[in-house]
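= Tokenised fold =
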Amino acid sequence: MGRQIFFGTVSAGLLQGLLATIGCWLTGVPEAPFLGALTTVVSLVPGVGGSVVWVPAGLFLIYTGHPMAGIIELLYGALIVSIGLELVIRRRLVGVAQLPKVFTFVGLFGGVALFGLMGLILGPVIVSLCVAVLKIYNEEVVELPVDTTVLVHDRSPLR
């Protein structure tokens, strides 16, 4: 599972960098390959990711007198680089989509808080392991017969 998460995270980061490079190149942002490589690196940061690169690039275009190109860059970054990649592609590549979103969120942020950058991989692995253990425990407890005599409260005084 750790290998799958690592492969998915790296692949999604490379794809996000490639998409950001294409968007920057199409809208005329200077140094598009550098910004794409930077997007690949910062895509590992949960929560903000590539938006750290494409938002300033779009605002730069608007500020320098290219408002239409800036708006296109912002829309492309939001819809393709961030939402499209995060919601569709990264989930399929990383493979933690079977976990509830809250657990994935806690795994990513908790992993980063506890282990630093390596927590991007360790956090979801630990959360997945905990969920698997709880599922196995639940299956074992449900299959065991329940002893109802333990549930009856004994009203005798303690001696």
